[in-house]
Amino acid sequence: MSMDPENVASEYFARMRAGDISVVDLFHDDGTLVGLGTTRSGKAAIREFYQGVIERAGPTPRSAGPLLVNGSRVAAEVFIDLADGQVIHAVDIFVVEKNRIRSLTYFLCAHSD
């Protein structure tokens, strides 16, 4: 199935909302996940990350606005509701090549109470 970068990002968020570990299948075999000062390279490392996050935190992202698309890049501002009631504000930047995520870099936004 052929998906443009916007559809790949949308599918990523749909799978995350469903708690579906197949979210990892959206990444290239040598894809990267970058965030919080770490880089995870390859599907095995990315799968390990998502398995732990989905099991521990039950993240359910919701959009804070429209996806911003520029060629192979997609930026998304999201709020992520966690199972413990916390809400995380984040920005995700996808690079999509050949219907798969080449890299996903995420930034957590500071918030004030």
CATH class: Alpha Beta
Low confidence ranges: none
Strand runs, count: 7
Tally of DSSP helical segments: 2
CATH architecture: Roll
Give the % helix: 10-25%
**Order of helix and strand elements from N to C terminus:** HEEHEEEEE
Distance between the termini: 44 Å
- Largest sheet: number of strands, sense, barrel closure: 7 strands, mixed
Shape: globular
What's the gyration radius in Å? Answer: 13 Å
Counting structural domains, the number is 1
Mean pLDDT: 95
Strand content: 35-45%
CATH topology title: Nuclear Transport Factor 2, Chain: A
Structural class: alpha+beta
Briefly characterize the structure.
By secondary structure, the chain is α+β, with helices and mostly antiparallel strands.
Describe this structure in words.
This protein is α+β, with helices and mostly antiparallel strands. The chain has one domain: Nuclear Transport Factor 2, Chain: A, CATH 3.10.450.50. It has helices spanning 5-17, 43-57, and strands at residues 27-35, 38-41, 60-63, 68-70, 73-81, 87-97, 100-108. A hairpin with a 2-residue loop joins strand 1 (27-35) and strand 2. It is globular. 18% of the residues are buried.
Topology:
Elements: H1 5-17, E1 27-35, E2 38-41, H2 43-57, E3 60-63, E4 68-70, E5 73-81, E6 87-97, E7 100-108
List the main descriptive attributes of the protein structure presented here.
113 residues; alpha+beta; Nuclear Transport Factor 2, Chain: A; seven-stranded mixed β-sheet; 43% strand
